[in-house]
Amino acid sequence: MQSPMRELTQSHFLDLLRQRGIGISVHDDRLQISAPAGAVDAELRAELVRRKPELIEALRETAAQPRQDPLGPMDRSGGIPQTPAQQGMWLIDHFSPGNAAYNIPEAFMVPGAVDLPVLQAAVDRLIERHETLRTRFLEEGGRLLQSVLPVARAPVGFTDLSSIAERDRDRAMRELMRGMARQPFDLTRPPLVRFHLFRLARQRHAFFFNIHHIVADRESVAILQRELTALYIAAAENSGAELPVLPVQYADYAIWSSRHLGDGSMAGQIQYWKEQLAGAPPYLDLPFSRPYPEQRTPWGDTVLLSIPPPLCHRLREIAKQESATMFMALMAAFAVLLHKQTGKQDFCLGSPFTHRNHVETESLIGLFLNMLVIRCEYEGDPTFRECLQRMRTTALEAYEHSDVPFQEIVRALKPDPRSRRSPLFQIMFGFDAEQRGADQGLANFGTDPGTAKFDLTLQLREGPEAISGWFEYCTDLFQSAAIEHLSAQFLALLDAIARQPDAPVSQLGMQPPPTPEKERVPAKPDSGFWKEGIRKLMWRPSKRTEK
After folding, report:
1. Residues with pLDDT less than 70, the chain
2. 156: domain range?
3. Do 314 and 395 have their domain in common?
4. How many domains does the chain have?
5. 3-state DSSP assignment of residue 274
6. What is the DSSP-derived secondary structure letter of residue 361?
7. Domain check: are 90 and 229 in the same one?
8. In the chain, what is the greatest distance between 2 CA atoms, to the nearest angstrom?
9. 347 and 496, same domain (yes or no)
């Protein structure tokens, strides 16, 4: 069976290597690889062997013809512009002050004692290391700018809950964290990150931090975790942390990308998006529980779901047969769900895309996220296999034209500015692929501040066997029972797809099996704060070999 990797373009294959922390170079006509332990599996190793000649040739050409405009330390005398993604978040905050929808809260358990002064020293060093954590955002002379302060400090808060009865301790901590997660940031007053330590027992702590999306993305959260651990260990041992040198800071990237955006090199990509999205409906009307409000609030909730391993296995097989990824297969299934829910044959979804295309940005905390617009069309009652083929083609084309910031696409298409809805799409699909070879460490709890960025989001995360995730929904629009039913319908649809991938989508059932009353479990216990189950994230620094 053909591997989906064979269908990736050269640039996408190199992106895949970067996402897995794999570096490649040429020395004496030999391809050299540096990678975290376990990152190069049998499938990837075979693909590296197959592509070896063209990879060596491409690396030679790159070495012979260096970039005309390399990313490096930039002249900041003309001010530091906000990147397009940052501008979008600044405008949301400007017109809706106190909006907590773009807070990124994280919490994890620490099995053992924690020295608070040492933790504070590690936090101080982290803020000193990353300029983004000392950055403020402002408007000056009609320009949206960012400015780096020489010093900023985030005092680590502390709450001792060890004296509370054990049966009440976790609930008290959860309620405190939920309140902290919903506290807004003032974008003019860095640092745009907060830290808090909870003592649950002498040898058991919980650490919480909340960072604004304007200075971070999901990869940044993993970087923050890894580096803070390394800095804490180093501070406790009165030694230096072994962290990679930062050749640039985010401000350098912002200046570089602003110049790149204005040099006309993206004209072809912008034209692609104009043609791809021409005539697309401006929004998709779901069966809302309530009328669409004049002004949508940021408040939301989540409903959890888990795709069992046997079903994941069958879906992976279908994806492989079509040289597609699980991201493509699950997004295609989600789009089919929306098509069957609404009867619409043409609509758009949004999907986040990490845009760290330079080795210099790999260890930076910052916002390197772009939103891709995926158009879904269902004319002719296609089979799911045909839907997957269409999704694969659309996704690959979107990747090829992903340099254009979402805000530039909006400007080019000029949607109705009077619309109450977000432009181009209101429903998002996100998928985090399994991080092979990651050094698993402390247990992270997914914190939910009770907000929703879009009308509806399906966020999935791939594990070694199963895939889990949640529906995030705007409570202005939906009642929890409606989303719980939608989640059950999605699982039923996935089962039907796995059994009949060649059936027309109109014939794929979505009726969930009846659940006995005694087995029903609320989707969100304890006011819906904690995502059920503990998910593992990278905590200790990567074992990547530096060349």
Report:
1. 1-4, 7, 15, 18-21, 27-29, 34-39, 61-69, 434-447, 514-547
2. 80-251
3. yes
4. 3
5. helix
6. G
7. yes
8. 69
9. yes
* Range 17-22 contact pairs with CB under 8 angstroms and sequence separation of 24 or more: 18/356, 18/357, 18/359, 18/362, 19/354, 19/433, 20/44, 20/435, 20/436, 20/437, 21/437, 21/542, 21/544
- Contacts of residue 367, defined as CB under 8 A and 6 or more positions apart, other chains included, come to 83, 85, 86, 89, 213, 214, 215, 216, 217, 220, 250
Mean residue pLDDT across the chain: 85
Q: What is the H or E stretch that residue 85 is in? A: helix 84-95
Q: Are residues 459 and 321 in the same domain?
A: yes
State how far the Cα of 80 lies from the Cα of 85, in Å rounded to an integer: 14
pLDDT one-digit tens code per residue, 493-546: 999 999 999 999 999 998 877 655 544 433 333 333 223 332 332 232 333 333
Q: Are 95 and 155 within one domain? A: yes
Residue 211 placed within a domain: yes
Indicate whether 37 and 156 sit together in one domain. Answer: no
Residue 49: which CATH number? 1.10.10
Distances from the Cα of 383 to the Cα of 289, 327, 492, 498, angstroms: 30, 18, 17, 12
CB 123 within 8 A of CB 116: no
Q: Where are the alpha helices (DSSP H) in 182-266?
A: 218-236, 250-261
Q: Cα–Cα distance between 382 and 23 in angstroms, integer?
A: 41
Domain assignment of residue 287, yes or no:
no
Parallel/antiparallel/unpaired status of strands 456-462 and 427-432: parallel
Regarding whether 165 and 35 lie in a shared domain, the answer is no
Predicted local confidence at residue 50, as pLDDT:
85
Candidates 391, 380, 381, 455; CA nearest to 423 is 455
pLDDT attached to residue 507: 94
Neighbour count for residue 40 (Cβ, 10 Å): 18
The b/e string for 179-189 (b: 16+ C-beta within 10 A; e otherwise) is ebbbebbebee
Residue 306 included in any domain: yes
Q: Which of 311, 299, 277 minimizes the C-alpha distance to 460?
A: 311
Q: Report pLDDT for 543.
A: 31
CATH number for the domain spanning 230: value is 3.30.559.10
pLDDT of residue 64: 54
Query: Looking at residue 443, what is its pLDDT?
Result: 59
Same domain, yes or no, for 60 and 84? no
Residue that the structure tokens 């296995």 belong to: 313
Residue 218: what pLDDT? 87
Q: What is the pLDDT of residue 57?
A: 77
Identify which of 486, 494, 512, 508 has the alpha carbon closest to the alpha carbon of residue 287.
Answer: 486
